[in-house]
Design goal:
The chain is of the alpha+beta class and 400 residues long. It has helices spanning 12-23, 39-44, 57-62, 68-77, 80-89, 110-122, 177-181, 203-209, 240-244, 246-256, 271-279, 287-294, 299-306, 315-323, 378-399; strands at residues 4-8, 27-31, 52-53, 94-96, 101-104, 126-128, 132-136, 142-146, 149-153, 157-160, 187-193, 197-198, 213-221, 224-233, 236-238, 259-264, 325-329, 331-332, 340-345, 362-364. Strand 13 and strand 14 form a beta hairpin. Bound molecules: flavin-adenine dinucleotide.
């Protein structure tokens, strides 16, 4: 039985599939266009590698919205605890942070990746760097551009794990879309997920506050609320609380061109209590100082309150504004700067083994599939789970 397997894309989805298949005795070659593997995974570790989330599985699943039913079998077969055990097995114990997010104790991705690559080497996985996949030849061979020459491969099965299109300088640029479209495979357009939104700040606000965090706020939109931190940048707003609502906000902007949200700058205080605190203003105190002291607002929040126009002086009106400050998002930030990608291979194109129905023997996993999730560990968890599922799918297909 032919046992050669090509995995194209050495991100987390491709690497975990390589591990599973090599453990099962297959001869695996991992191809990547970059000189070294898992560059986005390493970047993900820079701000603290959020591997997965500890919330109950049923809640966890809802984070994938419409893709939840489709992803469920893979996530049940390789759930968050399995990912934590796997990291533990590589000497990288995990812990649950205060928000329920799961991180390796080392916080970074590099020690985990080093141990992982050592394990893969021990299992005999061959790594072929600087191999840029260019599609298929007329004889069905995989074609790679390598050092100015075309290299062919004829594996028994292929796994595509080419990632999305965010942060293209790390290797994943969505350049695979025309290659699959040519084969008649239905693709959903690649769109930014967990990215920022454009806001037309006033010149003075932009100059003073670009780079300032808005801590412990809530963003309210269409009955949904996301609490956390947001970050002001020169042309807009980004950060965890924004990302949590990024899918519905993106859809509204794509439909209507802009979207109105409300910021609650003191979500921990109710409006009546806030108005009471604001009623006690000392004589001669400036409104800005009063807002800072009585409402506990940082200078950036006070300036933000002034963005729509003149501030009301009356405590009840001020409290109402602090609890529901209107803000217009006028566009999406480019996909290049997003954390992840929505869209990709339509799930209807895949069978239960994650094999492309139109291309027998070719499987797909990770972010190139049409699902999206918020930040919080959901992205890596789904990449790992679909990587494991595709490895099992390849084994099952080769056996049959
Ligand atoms: C700044 C940042 C922080 C993040 N933090 C987190 C986090 O804390 N938690 C979390 O869950 N997720 C996080 N993510 C998202 C997470 O890193 C990705 O979802 C994940 O890496 C996707 O894995 P993947 O294996 O599908 O694809 P990728 O990791 O993108 O890997 C795909 C690989 O395919 C290769 N490739 C692409 N095209 C070709 C080609 N034509 N030929 C050969 N090789 C090719 C690329 O070089 C790349 O190595 C973060 C992302 C970013 C950008």
């Amino acid at each position: 039985m032919a046992r050669d397997i090509a995995i194209i894309g050495a991100g987390p989805a491709g690497l975990i599939a390589a591990e599973r298949l090599a453990e099962a005795g297959y001869a695996v070659t991992l191809y990547d266009r970059m000189p070294s593997p898992a560059r986005k995974f390493l970047l993900a570790g820079r701000g603290g590698l959020n591997l997965t989330h500890s919330e109950p599985f049923e809640t966890f699943l809802t984070r994938y919205r419409e893709a939840a039913p489709w992803l469920e079998p893979a996530l049940r077969a390789f759930p968050p605890q399995a990912l934590r055990d796997w990291a533990d097995g590589l000497g990288q114990e995990t812990f649950i942070g205060s928000s329920g997010r799961v991180f390796p104790k080392a916080m970074k991705a590099s020690p985990l990746l080093r141990a992982w690559l050592r394990r893969l080497e021990g299992l005999g996985v061959a790594f072929a760097p600087r191999h840029d996949w260019r599609g298929w030849g007329e004889n069905g061979a995989l074609l790679f551009e390598h050092d100015g020459a075309t290299v062919e491969a004829h594996p028994a099965a292929t796994l595509l794990a080419l990632g999305g299109a965010s942060w293209p300088r790390l290797g994943s640029d969505g350049g695979w879309t025309p290659l699959l479209a040519e084969r008649g495979i239905a693709l959903l357009p690649l769109r930014p997920a967990n990215g920022g939104f454009a806001v037309a700040w006033s010149q003075i606000f932009r100059e003073r506050f670009a780079g300032a965090p808005l801590k412990r706020i809530a963003i309210c939109f269409a009955g949904g609320e996301a609490r956390g931190e947001a970050m002001i940048d020169a042309d807009g707003l980004e950060g965890g609380a924004v990302y949590a609502l990024s899918a519905p906000l993106r859809e509204a902007i794509q439909r209507d061109g802009k979207v109105a949200i409300r910021l609650d700058l003191r979500p921990d205080l109710d409006e009546a209590h806030l108005a009471e605190r604001l009623a006690a203003r000392r004589k001669g105190e400036t409104l800005s100082n009063h807002l800072r002291k009585a409402a506990g607002l940082a200078p950036v929040s006070v300036a933000l309150l002034r963005e729509p126009g003149r501030l009301p002086e009356e405590p009840a009106a001020l409290a109402a504004l602090i609890k529901a400050l209107p803000l217009m998002l006028t566009g999406l930030r480019p996909i290049e700067r997003a954390i992840s990608t929505a869209g990709g291979i339509a799930t209807s194109e895949l069978d239960e083994n994650l094999m492309l129905k139109r291309l027998a023997g070719t499987f797909a996993a990770g972010e190139m599939l049409d699902w999206e999730g918020p930040t919080g560990g959901y992205l890596l968890q789904a990449c790992f789970a679909t990587g494991v599922a595709a490895a099992l799918g390849i084994e099952s297909w080769l056996r049959s």
